[in-house]
Amino acid sequence: MGIATYGYLFTIESNGALYATNANTGVKLRIGKAEFASTQHLFEAAGKLYSIEKDGSL
How big is the CA angle at 57 (ends 52 and 58), to the nearest 5 degrees? Predict the structure, then answer.
């Protein structure tokens, strides 16, 4: 699952970690802990990333 915004591709990998890949350089960085395994939807609004979990929580 992923979303492209502000020159980055944000993806949630199978290990539950969130990564940001720079679209120009291809450099991939892990963001925070692997706590996104239950994410069902990922979206951007007003410059922030939001995830909706499988149970419907934000």
Answer: 55
pTM of the model: 0.87
Q: Tokens in use for 48?
A: 């922030």
CA 41 from centre of chain? 9
Q: For residue 45, is it within any domain?
A: yes
Q: How far apart are CA 54 and CA 41, in angstroms?
A: 8
What kind and span of H or E run contains 20? Answer: strand 18-22
Domain span holding position 16: 2-53
Instruction: Identify the CA nearest to 5 among candidates 38, 34, 55, 45.
Output: 45
Average pLDDT over residues 27-47: 94
Number of domains present in the structure of the chain: 1
